[in-house]
Amino acid sequence: MMDLFFRTITWGGSLMVLLPLALLISLLFYARGRIGDAALLLGGLLGASLFVHILKRLFARPRPEVENLLVAMPPDFSFPSAHTGQAVAFSIACALILSRQNELTGALVIWGMLLAFAVLVGVSRVYLQVHYLSDVLVGALLGGCWVLLLSRLLGLWLPRS
Asked: Is the whole model's pTM more than 0.85, yes or no?
């Protein structure tokens, strides 16, 4: 049962899932004149993905050597975890955007749910044995820091609605 759960949740950090979702949401924001929110969500996801993949090439850390894998071993390098970085970037961007429109209790619920999702994606990468814990931690740190920096930069340059 846990194997199926983690094989499913790990897809939540995939660009195949997050990119179409971020594009759709960003288009809705853009259509409503919320250009800063659209830029934060899409730029956060794409920037985190780009930075993680650059670091993968720079460090070229091999993936764990494991027998009887639950999923196919991804063909790229291990460090840092792209799924985790992307899930964290997407989650924090969404939480920042949505929490501005809610009272404190609602904002805390939003942050809790989105961060729980991102943590589960990270845990799934270790559980499935395709990453080391350090890959996941650095991916999460990178995705989170990038979105917070981008949010700050966009706050200076683009009007918020």
From this structure: yes
* Catalytic residue of the set 26, 81, 131, 150: 131
User: Which of 83, 84, 126, 151 is flagged as catalytic?
Assistant: 83
Listed in sequence order, the residues at least 6 apart from 111 whose beta carbon sits closer than 8 Å to its beta carbon are 95, 99
pLDDT reading at 23 higher than 60 = yes
Buried (b) or exposed (e) across 79-108, using 16+ Cβ within 10 A? bbbbbbbbbbbbbbbbbbbbbeeeeeeebe
DSSP code at position 71 = S
Confidence of residue 40 (pLDDT cuts 50, 70, 90): very high
* pLDDT at residue 160, rounded to an integer: 53
Average pLDDT estimate for 137-145: 98
The answer to whether 83 is a known catalytic residue is yes
